[in-house]
Structures are given as structure tokens and as C-alpha cells.
Design brief:
single chain; 426 residues; mainly beta; 5-stranded mixed β-sheet; 5-stranded antiparallel β-sheet; 5 helices; 28 strands; disordered N terminus
Length: 426
């Protein structure tokens, strides 16, 4: 009887009893070494992996020793393993292994093989001394047992920078793969692998996107190397649209930059980027008041409550503001998933940038970076930074599972799915 009474009260208050916040990596005002930069991956079944920076130098990667730590869940986030080191930096000045941070991760459908890309070394992304000759370095790690153990890091700096050396925009001076979730295609499978899309924060000339058809062993530019999909973009994520095209979402002051890569031939990765669009309160878009902060984008299959029809819903997280506070999630219903449907024929970044609903405010505290994946039970595993125990840079990495009903105020419900599904080879 008590259980039903609590459920009734929760429904009245608009609460979600399943949304049990958990502090996975805790930073207090007294902590000697802060945690920062959340990343999360759905592995297989009920398993999840969370990763974060453990900043022994007390600052961003590039300033000294930074390690990457992880925790695993076997039950859709209800409980988590003890914290463990994935890779430790040496702290040796000027060394390529001085530190490792800003993890971007993805799991293969088998749940055992996991790719992790991160920044490594002892150079600072935005520093004047960081150049093509003295670059912000890139490391690659793999796990083949579901995140329990990891390979030695491989330095793939030259592999990535050299992709753009012949660009008419000029060589990239500094870059890094933006932390969080690496996008895995639901529709494009080349051989035994689903295509991966990873977004790059670069200077000069803004964002780039690369793709891999061999689970991160080799990478190619998505689109022309002579064009930036968001010339003024900062930290950036990408996600696959229901029709197989690729959406870019980039951090900027007051909202997001969006762009869309339209395929002509998905197997050959032929296509082109459209025109970048700014999304903010002015066009009923994603509003990030008085801040520019990394956030997550996720598109999931859903059911519309009003007519019980299947559809797709895009989610975008940002600090609602003002400043880095009140992290929340916006949502937007998308057209049908049929590639040749009329709705997609002339769908642009401007269309994607407008008409967002919500937002759901996840926290009322100071809060910054966020990322998310869908769990097997349909809920959204939302992983974000929160000033749980004090102001300033004292961010605790918080996990909270959210239903799509809660995020959209009952307008949509998530279809339970384990992504990616079985796809036809192209």
C-alpha cells in the first residue's frame, strides 16, 4: 500500500522514481585532485562503462599528470563497480605519456570490444606554443574484455593531423577528439564493423568530422578537407539522423551550432556538408544562457503519446544557465526514418536548429559538461558534472537514468532497443 501511495505522490509532483542520482566520481571542496570530463558507453545488455579524468595536476590535460579512471555497471546503472585506473600518466614534463584526458568512447555491438580516444602528452590545446610541429597529441586504447583491462596506448597523432595537411584552409595547428560518446552508425556497416563518426575540435578554422569503417584503426575525413562544417565551432559532437545522414552539434556562446552531412552514397561516404545554423532562444532552439559548454546529443526511436505512432526524438544537453549551472535537456521530434521520404529531401541544419521543446532541468546546482547514451531498458543514462559539494571547479560526476517521458513531459516514450540493431551490409 505504501508503494502505491509513493507512486501516486510521485505522479502528482511529476517526479520519476527511477531517476536515482548516483555520485560516481566525487570531488569535494577538500579534494586534492578533482575529477572532470564525463564519458559513458552502453556495452551490451545491462552493462555500462563510465570514464572520467582524474586530475593529479589539478588542471586540464596538458598542464601535467592526468589519469583516466572508470567504473562498470552490470545492471543498467543500479550498482557500479569500484573505481579503477584505465591509464595512468607519468607526469614527466614534455613527455607524450605525461597525461591522458578528455576520453571519447564507444563499444562494439558485442559489448567486449571498446575503443577509447583521448588527448595525451604535455601540450595545451589553446596555447600559442601548440603548433603542427608541437601538437596536442592523440592516443588510442582498446579493451577486449568489456572494459576490465586495456591495451597500452598508441600515439596516433600524425595519423589524424596528416588527414588535413593539404587542406586549402591550411594545416591544423591543434586538435582533439571531443570527450563523451563516439557515434556508431545504425545503418552503415562495412564488412564486420558499423561505421564510427567522431567530431574534432580544431584550430584554426573550427570543427572537423572523421569516420572509421574498421572500429577506429584508421580514419578518413567526412566530406571535403577544404571545408569546416562549423568554422567557429568549439567542442563538438555528432549523431546519426534517422535517414542515415550525420548531424553535427558544436559548442558556442548562448546555444549550439548545427550542421548536417547529406549522403549521396553512404557506402562510399560521398556527400557534402550543408550550411551551418545557429540555435538559440531567438529561434526556439537550444538556449544556453551566458555560457559556452560541452554537451551531448542523442537521437533515439520513440513512440508519440498523442497518436501512438513510432517516430524519432533528438535530445541535446547544455547548462541552461545563467553561466555554468542548471544542466538540462532539450528535445525535438524528427521526420520519418525513410531515407527517401519527402521530409528529408530538403531537411537542413536550419530546420534542425529550430523548434526544440523543453527543457528538463536535471539539476539546480552549478554544472557543466554532460553526455548520454540509451540503456537497454530504454532509459537515458545521463552523466554530467555538478558542484555537489562546493562552488568553483569542484565537480562531481553524476549519473542519473531518465525516462523519455520525464524528459518530454509525457509527449514521447522510448522504444526499448539495444543499439545498433542488426543492419544490412552496404
Amino acid at each position: 500500500m505504501k508503494k502505491f501511495f509513493l507512486l501516486f505522490i510521485a505522479l502528482i509532483l511529476g517526479l520519476d522514481l527511477s531517476a536515482q542520482r548516483q555520485e560516481l566520481f566525487v570531488t569535494t571542496a577538500d579534494s586534492a585532485h578533482p575529477y572532470r570530463i564525463p564519458a559513458i558507453a552502453h556495452l551490451k545488455g545491462k552493462r555500462l562503462l563510465s570514464v572520467t579524468d582524474y586530475r593529479l595536476c589539478g588542471a586540464d590535460i596538458g598542464f601535467g599528470r592526468v589519469d583516466l579512471h572508470g567504473r562498470l555497471s552490470q545492471d543498467n546503472g543500479r550498482t557500479w563497480s569500484s573505481e579503477y585506473p584505465i591509464i595512468r600518466g607519468t607526469g614527466v614534463k614534455h613527455a607524450a605519456d605525461c597525461g591522458y584526458g578528455d576520453a571519447a568512447i564507444v563499444s562494439a555491438p558485442n559489448g567486449r570490444d571498446i575503443l577509447l580516444l583521448c588527448v595525451c602528452g604535455n601540450t595545451v590545446y589553446g596555447a600559442a606554443s601548440t603548433t603542427r610541429q608541437n601538437p596536442n597529441r592523440v592516443a588510442r586504447l582498446y579493451s577486449h574484455d568489456g572494459g576490465k583491462t586495456w591495451s597500452a596506448p598508441e600515439d596516433i597523432t600524425e595519423d589524424i593531423y596528416s588527414l588535413f595537411d593539404e587542406s586549402q584552409l591550411g594545416p591544423i595547428q591543434s586538435l582533439f577528439f571531443t570527450s563523451g560518446r563516439i557515434c556508431q552508425s545504425r545503418t552503415v556497416k562495412i564488412g564486420k564493423y558499423y561505421r564510427l563518426y567522431a567530431a574534432i575540435c580544431a584550430r584554426p578554422n573550427g570543427n572537423r568530422v572523421v569516420y572509421s569503417d574498421d572500429f577506429g584503426h584508421t580514419w578518413k575525413p567526412l566530406g571535403s578537407i577544404h571545408i569546416s562544417p562549423a568554422p567557429k565551432g568549439d567542442e563538438v559532437k555528432c549523431e546519426e539522423l534517422p535517414n542515415g545522414d550525420v548531424a553535427l552539434s558544436s559548442r558556442t556562446w548562448g546555444g549550439r551550432y548545427f550542421n548536417i552531412f547529406h549522403y549521396r552514397n553512404a557506402r562510399l561516404a560521398e556527400g557534402e556538408w550543408g550550411e551551418v545554423a545557429y540555435s538559440s532562444a531567438d529561434n526556439q532552439g537550444v538556449d544556453a544562457q551566458k555560457n559556452s559548454t560541452n554537451g551531448g546529443i542523442l537521437i533515439i526511436p520513440a513512440r508519440r503519446t498523442s497518436d501512438n505512432r513510432k517516430t524519432w526524438v533528438a535530445l541535446q544537453s547544455v547548462p541552461l544557465g545563467p553561466g555554468r549551472s542548471n544542466v538540462g535537456i532539450y528535445y525535438k521530434a524528427l521526420p520519418t526514418n525513410k531515407r527517401r521520404a519527402p521530409e528529408w529531401e530538403h531537411y537542413t541544419a536550419k530546420d534542425f536548429a529550430t523548434g526544440w521543446g523543453g527543457p528538463l532541468k536535471v539539476t539546480t546546482l552549478g554544472s557543466a559538461y554532460s553526455t548520454m547514451v540509451q540503456q537497454t531498458d530504454g532509459r537515458i543514462a545521463f552523466f554530467y558534472e555538478e558542484e555537489t559539494y562546493g562552488k568553483g571547479a569542484c565537480y562531481t560526476n553524476m549519473y542519473v537514468p531518465l525516462t523519455l517521458e520525464r524528459i518530454t513531459d509525457g509527449k514521447f516514450s522510448a522504444l526499448r532497443t539495444q543499439l545498433p540493431p542488426k543492419a544490412k551490409r552496404r
